[in-house]
Amino acid sequence: MKSLSWAVLGMISACCGAYVPDKIDIYTEHFPPYQFLGDRGEVVGRATMMVKLLMVQAQIDYQIHVLPWYRAVQQANESNTALLYSLARSTEREQHYQWIMPLCELKVGFYQRSGSVKPVPHYSLNNLKHYIIGVGTGQPSEQFLQSEGFDKSNLVSLSNLNQAGGLLEKGRIDFLFGAQSFVEQMAQAMGTEHTWKMVLNVPKLSAQLYLAAHKNAPKSYVEKLKEAAQNVQSAHLNRITTCHNSQYIQ
């Protein structure tokens, strides 16, 4: 049924020359301060602001859904007009999406609670394999650790990375591996910003987070979004922030 719907949309686009939906669904996850639910239940945040400006510029009605990341990805894949943010752009994902607009830059690293374990003069991926690491499940960060030889004996996969903060404080994990922006925001919320520190940055995982469209999204629809994105970026260039200067991720 899904493939039939896409075929119909393709026929409409081919016949009419330009297909743009009246209303679309946009999916994301809780990732403050870039996207989160505000006091009134509306989706707010710095990345969300950019997405909303884009939709106003494109003159397309929309609804933003905040879901766990796995579900957000699955839901976005169900419709070829749905959008997804904030998605880290990578070589593995390049062909699976159409990349509409960059939102911010992401840095990822290992965090330790001061005094929780005996410090090592120089941390590396190899010596960190001797410790228990908390990481978000299904994230590129988890996949990266697995590709580097980390396994179930030293990885604690968490569907909600916020849980890792409590585990780190209780000594249930030795290190937390995640986006600098998200971890530092979480530490601030927990009042632990002076006791948590990044001990190893992983430049290989640095990436830009994007608003992305389905790989089979109608061509005219994508062109309209990209044109609107150029206008938004030109008018609001100074508002495109970098994650490591303020704030997760994914």
Automatic annotation (TrEMBL):
Domain of life, source organism: Bacteria
Q: Sorted alphabetically, which PROSITE patterns does this protein's record hold?
A: PROKAR_LIPOPROTEIN
The name on file for this protein is Uncharacterized protein
Mind giving the lineage of the organism this protein is from? Answer: Bacteria, Pseudomonadati, Pseudomonadota, Gammaproteobacteria, Alteromonadales
